[in-house]
Amino acid sequence: MRVLVVEDEKKTASFVRKALQAEGFAVDVCHNGDDALAAVRATPFDVIVLDIMLPGRDGLSVLRQLRDRKNATPVLLLSARGEVNERVEGLNAGADDYLPKPFELAELVARVRALTRRTSENKSTILRVAGLTLDTVTHRAQRGGRDIELTAREYRLLEFLMQSPGRLCGRMMILEKVWEYDFDPGTNLVDVYIRRLREKIDAGFEPKLLHTARGAGYLLKEPA
Amino acid sequence: MSFRTRLTLWYAAVLFVSLLAMSIAAYFEIGRARSEVLRRAGVPDNLIAKDQQEDFEDVSEILAWYGLPAAALALAGGWWLMRKTMIPVAGLTRAAEKITARNLSERLPRTNRGDELDRLTAVFNDMLARLDDSFNRTREFTLHASHELKTPLTVLCGETETALRDESLSAAERERAASQLDELRRLARIVDGLTLLAKADAGQVALKLELVRLDELVRDNFEDARILAEPQGVRVELTVCEEITLPADRHRLRQLLLNLADNAVKYNQPEGRVTMSLRRADDVAEFTIANTGPGIPPETLPRVFDRFFRGDPAHSPTVDGCGLGLSIVQWIVSAHNGSVKIKSAPGQLTTVTVRLPLQA
């Protein structure tokens, strides 16, 4: 898996590269838009991490240029501006995800990984991970033949985690998808819900399915 | 006493004094002229004295029959004149009353007659322009500051997180780095809140209005509040939740409800209570949230919506937050043309009431 990081701020580019490399990605770094377009022409990438504020040609313009050239590489936009409608603007320009600065590194890694797995999302109406099943029509969850009572929110959280087993989900990502929050509420809602969900689906069962990844992410997976 | 009444009274006093002076002058002038005529005609002095008595009566009569009605008329005229003078002043007052920090760009209407009042309006408008300018500078400064802070914050957060991933870190080092990261994230949230408010002040945040089922948002929020309150043993109740649909920005309303719920849980006592309700009242949706916190003393109550205002630190030493929650709540409510009120006293329930119009 090869990732292109386009970020003019050298220190940011450096720790993003390190974090992605630590997760097993091959990482190339560009510091401006024109270099990025040249790099994409020369090498196929699996994901592009693109800062919006770049000297000269800005990130959105790079993105439009890419899409005009029919390049469909998944793009994760980064932005320090934090405009409320920038996310929408970015997604309209063809981005696949958007992360406002300052971000959590684990969050960034989780999103990059999610973008590489985008195609393998589970589309069946019955989601299954090891002995755990979730019926997305009746909202019924079962493990080891036993029914698990879930509140509406817990259901949505479990559904989101089970849609792509093994995908690392960052806190903000969960807040966005499950709570539909586009802001950081500054509470430990996600951690509390994960803890409750873990009690319901993992307590008394083996193997444990809901894991906390180092940093600030969660994932649901069968042990290898 | 209004300026108009005062001026009229002064006017009446001046009128009275001049009338009196006129009468006295008339009395002496008439008396002197007539005694001169009588003396020349050889009338004896005692008769002249009697005539002077009559003069006095004549003058008082004239005064009573003509002077007083004329004075009353002049007084009424004066009252009317004062009113006419004061109307533009009253208009100016009303217009100036409407000026707040939010509409400093508005100007008072001018008559362009070049008179004193028009000049006053012009001076007032110039003052507003200067105020507006300095307000804008402060806003821009906050906005730029929050943007500029984001890049170093991103680097700090990222590098601290990278450091935390280092397996060779000792437990003490790890703890220190984790605590730094916590503070950095808090700082990031403060900067986020500041950016939002600075943008809102500058009118740069547009609400995305759509029809929203407020009761569903309240129910969701109630669920979250219950979970957030669990570790502190705080009980959360939703007493009434009427079905209400209104035009609003869904994300901002969620933020509003979560901020209020988070506050109600945070500023509570162990085993305390949080009570929420959503009702329809005439043409507004009324959401209330009450908590059994320590209560807010009356002197700090008007300031709780101020940015970074935290009240008496002795009363809330352990509460962690960014200090902008209620300011954001207030902005969201006013952006929806609603109102937010807080009622509290030490040892009593603290109740926040949010009213949002059902029509845009």
How would you concisely characterize the structure shown here?
The complex is a heterodimer of chains A (224) and B (360). Chain A contains eight helices and twelve strands.
Describe this structure in words.
The complex is a heterodimer of chains A (224) and B (360). Helix content of chain A is 38%, strand content 22%. Chain A has helices at 10-22, 33-42, 59-68, 86-92, 105-116, 152-163, 171-179, 189-201, and strands at residues 2-6, 26-30, 47-51, 75-79, 97-100, 126-129, 132-135, 140-143, 146-148, 169-170, 210-213, 217-220. Chain A has a five-stranded parallel sheet, with helices on both faces. A four-stranded antiparallel sheet of chain A has the order 6-7-8-9, with helices on one face. In chain A, strand 8 (140-143) and strand 9 (146-148) form a beta hairpin. The radius of gyration of chain A is 19 Å and the shape is elongated. Chain B is α+β, with helices and mostly antiparallel strands. Chain B folds into three domains: 3-97, no CATH class; 140-201; 209-357, Histidine kinase-like ATPase, C-terminal domain (Heat Shock Protein 90, 2-Layer Sandwich), CATH 3.30.565.10. Helix content of chain B is 60%, strand content 12%. In chain B, the strands form two sheets. Chain B has a five-stranded mixed sheet. A two-stranded antiparallel ribbon of chain B has the order 1-3. Chains A and B meet through helix 1 and helix 8 of A and helix 3, helix 4, helix 5 and helix 6 of B.
State the separation between the terminal residues of chain A, measured CA to CA. Answer: 21 Å
Amount of beta strand of chain A: 15-25%
Q: Which series of helices and strands of chain B comes N to C?
A: HHHHEHEEHEEHEE
Largest sheet of chain B: 5 strands, mixed
- Output the strand order for the largest sheet of chain B: 2-4-5-7-6
Which stretches of chain B are low in confidence, meaning pLDDT under 50 for 5 or more residues running?
none
Mean of residue pLDDT of chain A? 86
Helix content of chain A: 25-40%
Architecture per CATH nomenclature, i.e. the level-2 architecture of the largest domain in chain B: 2-Layer Sandwich
DSSP strand count of chain B: 7
Query: Radius of gyration of chain A over alpha carbons?
Result: 19 Å
Quantity of strands of chain A, as a count:
12
Largest sheet of chain A: 5 strands, parallel
CATH superfamily of the largest domain in chain B: Histidine kinase-like ATPase, C-terminal domain
